[in-house]
Automatic annotation (TrEMBL):
Gene Ontology CC entries for this record: mitochondrial membrane
Described function: Mitochondrial transporter that mediates uptake of thiamine pyrophosphate (ThPP) into mitochondria.
Name of protein: Mitochondrial thiamine pyrophosphate carrier 1
Organism: Debaryomyces fabryi
PROSITE patterns for the chain: SOLCAR
GO molecular function: transmembrane transporter activity
UniProt Solcar repeat ranges: 33-119, 135-237, 245-335
Family in the record: Belongs to the mitochondrial carrier (TC 2.A.29) family.
Gene3D superfamilies: Mitochondrial carrier domain
Lineage: Eukaryota, Fungi, Dikarya, Ascomycota, Saccharomycotina
Listed Pfam families: Mito_carr (PF00153)
C-alpha cells in the first residue's frame, strides 16, 4: 500500500521490503519520536482518512438518503430538501463516527494489510517472476479482503449508527402522524449520535447495532479485495512508464481504486441502508405507540428496483475521497520521519 514501486516486475526478494520502502528524500521532517515510529503508517493513515472523510462526507450523506428509497426526484432535489429541512448540519450528520471509529478501523485495516500481504506472498513459492502483475493482484486482493473482513466485526456497529443518524430525521418524517409543519419542526431538532445509540439499544437491544451485518461483512470483504488490488496493480503498471511520475500514479490509482471498490460495494451497501431504515422505522413506530412493521425478508426484490440509486453520488465521493487519501498518505509517508 505505501510502496512506490518503480520496478517493472516484482520478485520474492524485493516484495516484502517494498511495502515500507519510500522514495529517498534528502530532507525529511522529523515528526515522530522513536517510540511512535512503528505506528507511523497507522497514525498517518488516520490523519489522511480524517481529511478525506471530512471533504467527502456531504456526498456520502446524499448517497445514503438516495439509497434509502425516499421519493427524491434526483440529487438536486435531495440536496435542496436536506438543506431546507435540516440546514447545513444535515450534510454532516453522523460525521463524528467516521472521523473517530471508521478512520481508526481503516487505519487498522491498512496495518493488517501490511502484515498479511508479505506472509501470503512468501507462502506462494511456485509462481514465476513473469507473473508479477497477476501475483500482485492475487496477493493484494486476498490481503485486502482478509484485512477488511476482520475489521468489519468492529466497524459494523459504528457504521450502523452513522447510517441511522443520517436517515433518522427522514424516518421521523415518514412515520410521523402529525401535521406537515410539526414534522418539519421536529426534523429541525438536534439528534445526536448518543441519542441514536440509546434509541437503538432501548428498542432493539445490542443486536440492533449489528442489523444488516451479513451485508456489511460481504461489502467490506469483496470491496476491500478489489480496492487494494486495484490500487497496487494500477500503481505498479503506471510506474512502469517512465513518463508518468509517481505522484500521478498515486493520484490516478487512488481514484480508480475508490471507484471500482465502490461499484462492488454499492448493492450490498444499499441493502444495508434498507435494513437500517427498517430498524429506525420500527423504533419510531414503537415510540408513537404503533406496532412494528413485519420484517421484509425479500430485500433483494426491493434492491432490483433501485440497485444503483445514488450510485453517481457514491462513485463521486469514492473517487474524490480516495485520491485525496492516497495522495496525502503516500506524500506524508515519504516526507515525514
Amino acid at each position: 500500500m505505501t510502496s512506490i514501486i518503480n520496478n517493472k516486475t516484482l520478485n520474492k526478494e524485493n516484495f516484502p521490503q517494498s511495502l515500507n520502502t519510500q522514495e529517498t528524500h534528502n530532507e525529511k521532517i522529523h515528526l515522530f519520536p522513536d517510540i511512535l515510529l512503528p505506528w507511523k503508517a497507522t497514525i498517518l493513515a488516520y490523519a489522511s482518512l480524517s481529511i478525506s472523510t471530512s471533504i467527502g462526507f456531504p456526498i456520502d450523506a446524499i448517497k445514503t438518503r438516495m439509497q434509502s428509497q425516499y421519493n427524491f426526484k434526483g440529487y438536486g432535489d435531495c440536496i435542496k430538501k436536506t438543506y431546507r429541512f435540516e440546514g447545513v448540519s444535515g450534510f454532516f450528520r453522523g460525521i463524528k463516527i467516521p472521523l473517530f471509529a471508521n478512520a481508526i478501523s481503516r487505519s487498522l485495516t491498512i496495518l493488517l494489510f501490511f502484515k498479511i500481504k508479505p506472509v501470503l506472498y512468501n507462502s506462494v513459492q511456485y509462481l514465476e517472476k513473469k507473473n508479477s502483475v497477476i501475483l500482485e493482484g492475487q496477493i493484494s486482493f486476498l490481503s485486502g479482503a482478509a484485512s477488511a473482513g476482520i475489521i468489519s466485526f468492529f466497524t459494523c456497529t459504528f457504521d450502523s449508527l452513522k447510517i441511522q443518524s443520517q436517515i433518522l430525521k427522514l424516518v421521523q418524517k415518514d412515520c410521523s402522524y402529525g401535521s406537515t409543519s410539526s414534522q418539519i419542526q421536529n426534523s429541525r431538532q438536534g439528534i445526536s449520535i448518543l441519542k441514536t445509540l440509546k434509541k437503538t439499544v432501548k428498542y432493539r437491544g445490542l443486536g440492533g447495532l449489528y442489523s444488516g451485518f451479513k451485508y456489511h461483512f460481504l461489502r467490506d470483504t469483496l470491496s476491500g479485495g478489489i480496492y487494494y488490488s486495484t490500487y497496487e496493480v494500477t500503481k505498479l503498471l503506471l510506474n512502469s512508464f517512465q513518463e508518468i511520475s509517481s505522484k500521478t500514479s498515486i493520484f490516478v490509482s487512488g481514484g480508480i481504486a475508490g471507484v471500482l471498490g465502490g461499484l462492488v460495494a454499492f448493492p450490498l451497501d444499499t441493502l444495508k441502508s434498507l435494513v437500517q431504515k427498517n430498524v429506525m422505522s420500527n423504533i419510531i413506530r414503537i415510540e408513537n405507540g404503533s406496532n412494528p412493521l413485519p420484517s421484509k425478508t425479500n430485500n433483494f426484490q426491493i434492491l432490483q428496483r433501485g440497485v444503483y440509486r445514488g450510485i453517481i453520488a457514491n462513485l463521486s465521493r469514492a473517487f474524490i475521497v480516495n485520491l485525496i487519501f492516497f495522495t496525502v498518505f503516500e506524500f506524508s509517508m515519504a516526507h515525514l520521519q
